[in-house]
TrEMBL record:
This is Uncharacterized protein.
Amino acid sequence: MSLLKGKFQQQGYLTREQLKEYAKIQNISYQLVKKVLSDLGIKIYDIKPGERTNKTDKGYEKCVLCGKKTEIKSSHPISDRDYYEKGVGQLCRECYQDL
């Protein structure tokens, strides 16, 4: 688990690929890794590639986790956005606070 802890502290999140790699190295199932982390109170968000640029038809971003429309315009620079998580995408305030 120290490998996952180190990556989490470095990045601020873990990817599905990192969890699968850890499971393979440890010779355990990916589902078991997810269950253990969940039992420890660590939320698992399974974001699939391509779901990161969710925009509404009115030009506002959607939260990549819950799909809720955010108050962030899609034209707003990423570097100046609130609740944007590098490597994950745009989040709503509630999902960002849950992380």
